Amino acid sequence: xxxxxxxxxxxxxxxxxxxxxxxxxxxxxxxxxxxxxxxxxxxxxxxxxxxxxxxxxxxxxxxxxxxxxxxxxxxxxxxxxxxxxxxxxxxxxxxxxxxxxxxxxxxxxxxxxxxxxxxxxxxxxxxxxxxxxxxxxxxxxxxxxxxxxxxxxxxxxxxxxxxxxxxxxxxxxxxxxxxxxxxxxxxxxxxxxxxxxxxxxxxxxxxxxxxxxxxxxxxxxxxxxxxxxxxxxxxxxxxxxxxxxxxxxxxxxxxxxxxxxxxxxxxxxxxxxxxxxxxxxxxxxxxxxxxxxxxxxxxxxxxxxxxxxxxxxxxxxxxxxxxxxxxxxxxxxxxxxxxxxxxxxxxxxxxxxxxxxxxxxxxxxxxxxxxxxxxxxxxxxxxxxxxxxxxxxxxxxxxxxxxxxxxxxxxxxxxxxxxxxxxxxxxxxxxxxxxxxxxxxxxxxxxxxxxxxxxxxxxxxxxxxxxxxxxxxxxxxxxxxxxxxxxxxxxxxxxxxxxxxxxxxxxxxxxxxxxxxxxxxxxxxxxxxxxxxxxxxxxxxxxxxxxxxxxxxxxxxxxxxxxxxxxxxxxxxxxxxxxxxxxxxxxxxxxxxxxxxx
Length: 598
Hints:
Blueprint: H1 5-16, H2 23-53, H3 55-62, E1 69-72, E2 79-83, E3 88-103, H4 111-122, H5 126-136, E4 144-150, H6 152-161, E5 166-175, H7 183-186, E6 188-191, E7 197-200, H8 202-206, H9 208-212, E8 216-220, E9 234-237, E10 244-250, H10 251-267, E11 272-279, E12 284-291, H11 324-333, E13 342-345, E14 348-349, E15 358-359, E16 367-370, H12 371-376, H13 380-390, H14 392-401, H15 428-435, H16 444-455, E17 459-461, E18 466-470, E19 476-478, E20 483-486, H17 490-506, E21 520-529, E22 536-549, E23 556-563, H18 575-589
Parallel strand pairs: 2-10
Antiparallel strand pairs: 1-8, 2-3, 3-4, 3-5, 6-7, 8-9, 10-18, 11-12, 11-23, 13-16, 14-15, 17-20, 18-19, 21-22, 22-23
Helix pairs in contact: 2-3, 4-5, 4-6, 10-18, 11-13, 11-14, 11-17, 13-15
């Protein structure tokens, strides 16, 4: 069958009859228009999302194009001390902007040349320079840290060198403006093997988490060329800066005390020394110093890491005769003796568990004496008598109640607990020697807290060095006074305080006194056990003085310790004069009027 051209067009004509010629065109135009409007709305919505809702994410993302994941480092909080006289706070640890150098090895063309140039600028040795060259040669590595805390001079040299693939950002570096104010207290901020900063020792170590803050993060998906995938998964969280720590230390007191301690250690050619000063009514630490100290700005320039340990809280030692005040307080509190109880001293006494008699210092004999005389003249046999009068068990309980044998809880790293474990053996020899400060070990801070209990009417408080913590969200954690327990009755505390005044007025503590004031305290010249065991070293002593004043309304408690003075053996000529000098300063600084005619 043959078909004409007309027949061939019939199907087309039938299709066109389904609608008007203009109807199909309108539908297509409307579809295209609707699509264009929808697309425009999507673009507008995306712009709103990018510019307003997710602005912080893209702003952060634009600042670091070399990393798939960039950790946002918070700014470390500051550490402050008080300046009591003008009522201000002084930063003793803060931040200063320095450069952090990093590399994108994918953009490094000559790793050997760049490493050598950086090594010369940063004054690295050959080994460290070659190690960097190896890291820069990895063409698939998008990020390599190079150096932190680069000063401005070296940074400008790096910039001038125009090293391809090398970048930098400015970040806070830790500085300590008040040099000589106490590296042991503040600690320092160091870097671990991965290049992350963290606090070490002192306040920096103890409160590292609070000071560090919370890191933020920036995470995004990228293609093989390192370009942002617009529709990829991404998330952003800003960093939370660290909290500020306000210490209880008084800047003027701290500086004065530390300076005088350094002078005394040098004067007597001593191995070292430490001082703790507490406010007895609150437990606030007003000053804490140790010698030898270190500069937190140059923490790596120490002979060995033991220099970081704070001797006021870490170095336990046999306290010697300053412990006799605790023994006497416990005996009086139990009613076993009173300040006028008589005792006949023959110069030595036999004790169960030891074949030889225990003698007084320099083998002195005092005859019939009172308990007040026992403290005045620091009579070993007299405090053994007082311990025996109350019994070993009450004595041991009192020692523990005063806080010995456990950490005080002060907010610093490396605090030691001391050692009174010999008292749990139950033999009289250990209680007898402990009564005059031998055979047990304590820290200067423990000793200061115990004397503060006497000065505070018999109540032991937990010493603290942090006044408050201020967080970036406005919260303030104010440290309250923390009562541990009542150790002795208030009447006992007053009696023992008066006996300690007698020690300063009539006994071995005369050089600790201050004209016009009643100061109470006790000397102690402690022997040091031989390192290989078997008795004490006859050539080494530790001189201490512990006391407080003014006696009727104590404003300070102080423990002074001088380690192994070479020129003078006795504490009454080393620790006691330093105590008196600082006590005189404190009374004038706090403008405390004299209690009696000068």
